[in-house]
Design brief:
By secondary structure, the chain is of the alpha+beta class. The protein contains five helices and five strands, in the order H-H-E-E-E-E-H-H-E-H. It has a five-stranded mixed sheet. Strand 1 and strand 2 form a beta hairpin. The longest helix is centred in the N-terminal third of the chain and has 15 residues. It is globular. The termini are close together.
Amino acid sequence: MGDVNDFFGNWLPDKLKNNPDLVKSINAIYVFDLDGDKWTVDLTGDGSVAEGAHDEPGCVVTAAKGDFENMLDNPSSAMMLFMSGKLKVTNVGLGISLQKLLS
């Protein structure tokens, strides 16, 4: 799953569609900024993924595209990326909820 376009275009929308309880349990809006490419993951309502940035996200996740792709292949590396400053989140509580999306 290590390609961001496949992750945001196929894998994540399918996961949200098949796991409505996951969407309800997180209930937040994320913006992912990966080398300047932005995606909005709206985990309110039915859940959706769209290119571009939402005006008022609850959490912005910033990383290099390559680091994010490595994290997709190895979700346990997220904490190491965060601690080394390679993965930044504006809301740590919501950032922790991202593990639910990747598992």
